[in-house]
UniProtKB/TrEMBL annotation, chains A, B, C, D:
Pfam families: Chorismate_synt. PROSITE patterns: CHORISMATE_SYNTHASE_1, CHORISMATE_SYNTHASE_3. Its EC number is 4.2.3.5. The gene is aroC. This is Chorismate synthase.
C-alpha cells in the first residue's frame, strides 16, 4: 500500500526516473467512461518539461499508452494501466552522485532506509514520478465528466519566492496565458524577470500553488479519518518537495478571532445555502459544503543549485557538491498540473465513497 | 475505513459527544508491551477539560477503561479496546441547534451528507472525539518505549492569535509550567492576559501548535504515498478545526531560494551525519533523516462565540445564532496533547511498517 | 487491519473470552437505517449458548449495547460500537491450561507467535468472538432491509459427522423447528440421538453448514481480488474451526466434466435470465448472476474432549490433558448463525462497493 | 483495492486476454533481493500454454519484462512493475461471443455488472490473468529466499475428474516428470489416456490441486481476519474457476470425531514440537504451527466444450453455443503453478506482517 492512494478510485504509481518506463495502475475506474490516450495526453502535455526556458531541458515526449481497462473507447471497470516510456535517459556518468549525498535530496534517506538506491536522476524520488499522477488525474477528470459534469478544477501559482500575486488583479483567463499559470497579468511579467535572474545565477526558488474545485456537491468527505481535507492534505503533501498544505485560511487561521473567521450562512436565490465568506475553504467537519474547495501548498526551492554545498560521501568523508544538469529553477511551476491532478483524484474518490455509503447526491435537503 | 488511521498500528475511533461512551479500537499493537489504565490516563489528564479557566468547563473525569488486549499488565497482540464513558451530558435543550446550523461548525455538512445528525454537543464532529486519539496515543507511547526507547515527542504552542513565541527564549522546561504549553515564560504571562480578555468578551482565537519528534531513527517513511510527512499531514489535518499543516519550513519554503533552504551535511563526532540546519523538518523524500522531525499545524478559532451570527434553519429560513454553553476560547490549547498523540501513532506505525519491509533499524550504513 | 473485514462496511471485532467485554466496531454503516438493540439481540439470541443440551452450558445473557452511531432509532453514518459484557466468567483455575497446550486449540500457536497469551477460556481464539460477528451481522441485515429489501439469508446444517441430510426431504420451514437448524425433519430426530451419544461419551463431532442468499441482484463482486466468492471464502474460513469452504459444486467440481457442470441459460417469463441448474452457486467470474448464492463450510469437531490426549508443556515436558468444562459436542451448530452473519456482512459490503463504482443496480440490461 | 491482494507485499494485477499487455504491480518488495527477468521467467515457463497436447495451443512466449524497482540486479524497495506482452492475439471474429453469453463463463455477469465488456478471449476474466500472478509469485519466491531460506512451496494435482492419486504411491520426485504435476507415476500414465479421451471428444474435466508449504516458521498469521488460512482461502478462491478451498482435513473435518481429528503434541529430538498427525494442515487458530501447511482447491471443468449448450443473447433471444478455439481440456493442470504462486505471496506477506507486529521470528519459546 506504500505506493497507492485513494479509497476506491485507487492509484498506484511505479517507475524510476531513468528506468525503462514509469506509470500508474488505476483501479476502481467507473465503467463506461469515454477514454483514450489523447484525453490523458492533453493533461500530460501541460506538465511536460522543456516547454520554455523556466523548466528542465530534459526533453521527454511523455507519450502515454493505455495498456488495459479500455475497450472500444470506453472504460470497462477493470484496472487501467498507464505507461510512459523514458526515452531521454542521457547516458551520463552517475558515479559522483552515487557516492555523494546531495543536500536537500532524498539520496541520504533512501540509502539509510534501504541500503540500496538507484542514483540515476534521483530514481524513484525524482519529480518525474509526478507524470504518472498527472496521467491518473486525466482518468479522474474523464470520470468526473460523467459522474459530476459541473465540476471544474483549476490550479495556479500564488507566490514565487519574494513575489506574490495581487488578488485584486485575479483573472481566471490569465492563467493559461503565461508560463507560470499565474492569475495576474502584471505578476506574470515581473515573475519572468525575477526567475530569469535566478536561473542565470544557477539559483532556485520556492513556490506556492493554489488549487480550487468549483461545483463540487455538498456532502463529500467521510469523517473522521477520511475527511476531504485530510485526504487533500495527504495528496498534496505526497508531491515531491511540498512542505506545507492549507485549506481555506490555512496557517493564517491561527491569527484570527472567531468573529473574523466566521462564514455566515444565508439562503441563496436558487434555494441553496450561500456563505458570506469562505475562510473554511469549502470544508466543514471534513465534509464539503458546496462552496469552492480551496487548497494551497508550498513547494520548496529546487535543491539542485550551482553554488557548491557541503556534504558527505557514503564512506562518511566530507565532500563538496555542485549539481549540474537539467533542472528547473522553480520546480513549483510544474507542480501546478500535479496539484490539479491530485485534487481530481481525491474528488472522484470521495464521490464514489459517498455513493457507496449514502447513495447518489447529498441526502439532507435544506428548505422545502 | 472512514474512521480508522494507520497502516499496521491501526486506530479506529468511535463515539459521539453525548452518547453513552466513546473510545478507540486499536489493532496491531505489538505484544508484550507493559500497559495499564494509569499509563493511558496520564496522557488523557493532560487533555482533560475544566482544568483551568481557559478550557471548557464541561467536567468529564475522562476515565479510560481497557476492555481487551491486555493480560496481566502486558499487551497480548490482540486489539485493545479503550472506552471513556460520557458522564457530564447535561440534559440541556438541543432543540435550537437541531434546527439552526451553527456557522463554522459541521452542522450543515453532516446534515447535507447524511440527512440525519446527532445535534447534542456536535455529535461525532465534537472535539470530544480527540479524547479517543489521546488514549490511543498513550498505547503508541507505551509501545515506542519498548521498540525505540530513545524517542521523545513534545508539543507546544507557538502562536495564539496575534501573539507568537520568541524562539530566542525557547525553553523546553517551561512547557509544562503554564496552561498554554508555551515554551517561553514571557509569552506565558502575556498570553494569559490576552486570552482572558477574549474569554470575557465571549470571543475566541486560533492557535499554532508545533510537535517535535526527537531521537527517531533515520529510515522511517515509505515512499511515495506512505511518506512520513504525508501521514503526519493527514494525521494533523484530521484533528478538528485544523486548517493547515507544515513540515520544517512549511509554507515559508515558498519564499526561499535554494541557497537559503539548503541543509548541508557533515559527519558528526559520533559517526552519524549532522546537518547544518533543519529546513527540511527532519524528512527528505518522505523518509526521516535522523534529525528532529518538526511538524506544525494551525487550529482555527472556536466557532462558538457570543456575538450573534447570521445563519439559516433546516427549513431554509434566515435566523440568528449565539452559541452559549461551555466552550474553550482557544480550542488550540487542548490540541497540543492531541497533536502529540497523533505523532506518536504515526511514528510507531512507521517503525512497524519499516520493519515489515526492511527489518530492524536502518539498512544503509554511512562511514567505514 | 488484522481484526477487520470488509471493504466499505468494515467490521473490527475485539475482546477475549474472559475479559470484561467483547464487541464490534462497525464502520461505513449507511445512514438512516432503523436500528436498535432489540433488532441485534434477535440475531444474537439465535447463537446464545446454553439454550439446549447440545450447546455449551456457559450461561451468558449476551446482551448487546449500542454505544454510538445511532440517534433516535436510526443510524447516523458514524461508527456503531457494539458491546457485549462477559458476565459468566467462572473464577476457575486456569493454571493447567496456562502451562499445557491443548491439542487442536490455538494455545501453542498464540504462544509461539506472541510469547504471551490469555489462557482464560482460550482468550481471543475462543468461539465466543463469534458473538461480535453475529451482532455486526444484525446491523448488516438491518441495512440490507433498506438497501435491497428482497434479500433473504438462510443457514442450516447439512452434515454432522456421519449423518447427512437427504436433499429430497429439504424443507425450509423445518430449519427453525429443531436445535440443529437442519432442513430435514427425519434427520433432526436421528441427529438428536446421535449427538446425545457423543455428548455422553465426552466426544465431539464436526459439521457442514450451508448458507444461501436468495434475491441478491446480479452484479455483486469486484474482480479480481474482491470477487464475491473470494470474500465469502475468506469470511467463512475466518470463523473458528472452519477447515473448508465451497461455492456451488465446491470440491466436487473436480470430479465433473464440462457437460455435467454446465448451467445452461434461458430467458425467464419475467424477462430475466433463468439457469437450468446452479453448479456455479450463483457466482460466475466472481460476480453474482442473480441465482441463489450457495456457500458451504466445514467445522472441525470441538477439540475439547474427555479422552486424554498427549501434549507438552511450555517447558517442553511431555504431559497429558483432558479438557473438562462447558463445551459444545458439536460447535458447528452455533456456527449456523455465524455463517449467516458473515454472509450478510459480505453481501452488504458488496452492494456498497458496487454502487461506489457502478451506481445503483446492475448496469447491463438483457433483452429490450 | 479490487484488483489487489496482500497486506504489505501487495500485488495488483492488470490486463486483459487480448489487450496489448498484462502484468502485475508489486508493492512492498523487501529491498536488496537479487532479482532479474530470468528468475521470474523460470516460474512463468512452468505455466506457459502450448507445452503439450493437454494445454491450450495458444502460443504465447509469455516473456516478462521488469520495468521498475530493480537496480543492478537487486530490488530497491520501490514497486516492481512486471509486464507481459500479448503477442498471439489471433485476429479472429469475436462477434458471436460478443452477443451470446457462454454458459459457465463470466460473460453474463460482467455484462450485467458493468454494462460493457471486452469479449476478446474473455477479457479480464480470462485465465490468462494468472500469468501475472505467477510472475508476482516469482518475486515472492526470490524474497522468501532471502528472508526465510528454508521454505519450500510445492503444488501438484491430486485428482482429475474420476481419477485420484494413491497417496501410498506419493513421490515428490515424480511431480516434475509428467505433464500433470501428479506425484504418482502410475496415475500419470492412466491420466494421460483419460485426458486424451476427453480432449478428443471436445469435453473437459475438473481437477483438485494441493499446495504444501514446508519449512515455514511457527507464528505466521494474524487473527482474527488476517488469519493465515483465511488469506490462503481468499488467494486460492480468487483463481479462475476455483469452487472450493480446504486446509488440512478440509470439508472432511465435518465427518470426524474429536478423537479422530486430534493432532497430539510431542517434543521432538531437536527441541521443537512434533505433532502425531496433521489434520490441522499446519494452522491452528489461524497461525502456523511449524508443521507443513497444506492447502487444497478444486478447479471446475473448462466451460468451453464442443457439445452445444443452450444460452441467450444480449437481446434476450434463445441461442445455442459451441465454444471452439484453443482451450485446455483440464484447466486445472495450469492451476498448479498458479496455486504455488499464490501461496508464495501469502507466506511472504505474512512473514512481513509478523515482523511488523512482533519482530523477527516467533517470540515464544518452548522448552528450557
Amino acid at each position: 500500500m506504500m505506493n497507492s492512494f485513494g479509497h476506491i478510485f485507487r492509484v498506484t504509481t511505479w517507475g524510476e526516473s531513468h528506468g525503462p518506463a514509469l506509470g500508474a495502475t488505476v483501479d476502481g475506474v467507473p465503467p463506461g467512461v469515454p477514454l483514450d490516450e489523447a484525453a490523458i495526453q492533453h493533461w500530460l502535455d501541460r506538465r511536460k518539461p522543456g516547454q520554455n526556458k523556466y523548466t528542465t531541458q530534459r526533453r521527454e515526449p511523455d507519450a502515454v499508452r493505455i495498456l488495459s481497462g479500455v475497450y472500444e473507447g470506453r472504460t470497462t471497470g477493470t484496472p487501467v494501466q498507464l505507461m510512459i516510456e523514458n526515452t531521454d535517459q542521457r547516458s551520463k556518468d552517475y558515479s559522483e552522485i552515487a557516492e555523494k549525498f546531495r543536500p536537500g535530496h532524498a539520496d541520504i534517506t533512501y540509502w539509510q532506509k534501504y541500503g540500496i538506491r538507484d542514483p540515476r536522476g534521483g530514481g524513484r524520488s525524482s519529480a518525474r514520478e509526478t507524470a504518472a499522477r498527472v496521467a491518473a488525474g486525466g482518468i479522474a477528470r474523464a470520470a468526473l465528466g460523467e459522474l459530476a459534469p459541473g465540476i471544474e478544477i483549476r490550479g495556479y501559482m500564488t507566490r514565487m519566492g519574494t513575489e506574490a500575486i495581487d488578488r485584486a488583479r485575479f483573472d481566471w483567463d490569465e492563467i493559461e496565458r503565461n508560463p507560470f499559470w499565474v492569475p495576474d497579468a502584471t505578476a506574470a511579467g515581473t515573475w519572468a524577470d525575477y526567475l530569469d535572474g535566478l536561473r542565470k545565477s544557477g539559483s532556485s526558488v520556492g513556490a506556492e500553488i493554489e488549487v480550487v474545485v468549483r461545483g463540487a456537491p455538498a456532502g463529500l468527505g467521510a469523517p473522521i479519518y477520511a475527511k476531504l481535507d485530510t485526504d487533500l492534505a495527504a495528496a498534496m503533501m505526497s508531491i515531491n518537495a511540498v512542505k506545507g498544505v492549507e485549506i481555506g485560511e490555512g496557517m493564517n487561521a491561527a491569527r484570527l478571532t472567531g468573529e473574523e473567521n466566521a462564514d455566515e450562512i444565508d439562503m441563496g436565490d436558487d434555494g441553496t445555502p450561500v456563505f458570506s465568506s469562505n475562510h473554511a475553504g469549502g470544508i466543514l467537519g471534513g465534509i464539503s459544503s458546496g462552496q469552492d474547495i480551496v487548497c494551497r501548498f508550498a513547494v520548496k526551492p529546487t535543491s539542485s543549485i550551482l553554488t557548491p554545498r557541503r556534504t558527505i560521501t557514503k564512506a562518511g568523508e566530507p565532500a563538496e557538491i555542485v549539481t549540474k544538469g537539467r533542472h528547473d529553477p522553480c520546480v513549483g511551476i510544474r507542480a501546478v498540473p500535479v496539484g490539479e491532478a491530485m485534487a481530481a483524484c481525491v474528488i472522484l474518490d470521495h464521490l464514489m465513497l459517498h455513493r457507496a455509503q449514502v447513495g447518489e447526491g447529498p441526502r439532507g435537503t435544506i428548505g422545502r
